[in-house]
Amino acid sequence: MSAKSSAPSAPPPPTMGRKLAAEVFGTFLLVLGGVGTAVFAANFPDAENNSLGVGFVGVALAFGLTVLVGIYAVGHISGGHFNPAVTLGAAVAGRIPWKDAPSYWVAQIIGGVLGSTVVYVIAVGGPDGFATNAVAGGFASNGFGEHSPGGFSLVSVLIAEIVLTAVFLFVILGATSNRAPAGFAGLAIGLTLTLIHLISIPISNTSVNPARSIAAAIYGGPDVLAQVWLFILAPLVGALIAGVAYRPLFEGRKP
């Protein structure tokens, strides 16, 4: 048998169904890990006696780690977006076909809602009043004004979400470039998302991801649902800016 015939054949490219399943799983993992940490562990046992709670740093790490492990688990199947803003930026930058974007968005929203639903179901089985208090506290939702952890205004939150999403997309597009060192994209992306959360949890509770915001807001009550539009709009604007600017800035060609 010749060396050519004995070499293993390359696996077939993933089907769209498998790509969408990967996006559902990855976004589910992101919301389960990040929102779950915020709901169950950020102030454990309570805000006044927070001797064991993970606080802002723990929540930031939870979001960064879930993206990191999700990318290494299924990123080779779908690209590991887990975020409608990432999909938009990738499409604008020519990394994925535009025709794939709507299906990715639907898969990401489904995955996010599944993740927040699991968190809510677990919360219902907690101590008396736990789920009610989690919902009354916004269920780790994003917000501005009185729903911002630090009381930041709509304008401040809008600027933070646009700028930080653009930064996130610049890192993603750079780390996944064929010129970048192979195998390190997940680490760079996960650490960047951690950094973004460290900056902006006090400002907006950190979105940079419309699917994450929608998933939490559906259990956060009508007040946070009324503000979720900003956390859909601002990340998409930031992603659009980065998607348009990346190639002329860093690759010397037009988008």
From TrEMBL:
<dbReference type="InterPro" id="IPR023271">
    <property type="entry name" value="Aquaporin-like"/>
</dbReference>
<keyword id="KW-1003">Cell membrane</keyword>
<protein>
    <submittedName>
        <fullName>Aquaporin Z</fullName>
    </submittedName>
</protein>
<feature type="transmembrane region" description="Helical">
    <location>
        <begin position="152"/>
        <end position="175"/>
    </location>
</feature>
<feature type="transmembrane region" description="Helical">
    <location>
        <begin position="104"/>
        <end position="123"/>
    </location>
</feature>
<keyword id="KW-0997">Cell inner membrane</keyword>
<keyword id="KW-0677">Repeat</keyword>
<keyword id="KW-1133">Transmembrane helix</keyword>
<dbReference type="InterPro" id="IPR034294">
    <property type="entry name" value="Aquaporin_transptr"/>
</dbReference>
<keyword id="KW-0812">Transmembrane</keyword>
<comment type="similarity">
    <text>Belongs to the MIP/aquaporin (TC 1.A.8) family.</text>
</comment>
<keyword id="KW-0813">Transport</keyword>
<feature type="transmembrane region" description="Helical">
    <location>
        <begin position="182"/>
        <end position="204"/>
    </location>
</feature>
<dbReference type="GO" id="GO:0015267">
    <property type="term" value="F:channel activity"/>
</dbReference>
<dbReference type="GO" id="GO:0016020">
    <property type="term" value="C:membrane"/>
</dbReference>
<keyword id="KW-0472">Membrane</keyword>
<dbReference type="Pfam" id="PF00230">
    <property type="entry name" value="MIP"/>
</dbReference>
<feature type="transmembrane region" description="Helical">
    <location>
        <begin position="54"/>
        <end position="74"/>
    </location>
</feature>
<feature type="transmembrane region" description="Helical">
    <location>
        <begin position="20"/>
        <end position="42"/>
    </location>
</feature>
<feature type="transmembrane region" description="Helical">
    <location>
        <begin position="224"/>
        <end position="246"/>
    </location>
</feature>
<dbReference type="InterPro" id="IPR022357">
    <property type="entry name" value="MIP_CS"/>
</dbReference>
<dbReference type="InterPro" id="IPR000425">
    <property type="entry name" value="MIP"/>
</dbReference>
